[in-house]
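Q: What would this chain look like folded?
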Amino acid sequence: MTEKPPAPAPDGTVATVANDSEAPDVSGSDAEARVIELEDHVRRSQADYENLRKRFDREVARERAAEGARVASAWLPVLDDLERALDHTSTSTSANPQAILAGLTSIRDQAVAVLSGLGYHRFDVVGEPFDPTRHEAIGTVDAPGPAGSVAVLVRAGYGSDHEVLRPASVLVCSGSV
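A: My prediction, written as structure tokens:
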């Protein structure tokens, strides 16, 4: 007996029908065993995922604590110098204002260096064109210079190339001078 080829369907595709002899022979107990095996695999995968998530959370917490300690350690010398300056001015009967000013300037420079070491440099903005992503305009002033440029730095800004930690508060030149 010869088999006829399958007839094309209305959409032009040719459907093939598997013979019953080609279907896998799966008995009820084999299927149940396979289901149990797959359920066990799913439970193990879920447990592995939970363990991985918990380990990740512990590592993130440890890294945060280590980074906090690193930043605090970077600020300790600045704090030490501030305490020495305060001790010197409170115990000295003839505190020289110029020496105190020089000491405070040195401590400020040290703090700026710490921030720079952490990746956040100080914005030197006077004379630059006003940039709303780096500057916060708190007013305008009649000052020499091009209109729209920063005339006065009121509060320094800090940031990296990709992020502004704090915008600089500035007075912007109105250009009427």
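Residues 38 and 44 are 10 Å apart (CA to CA).
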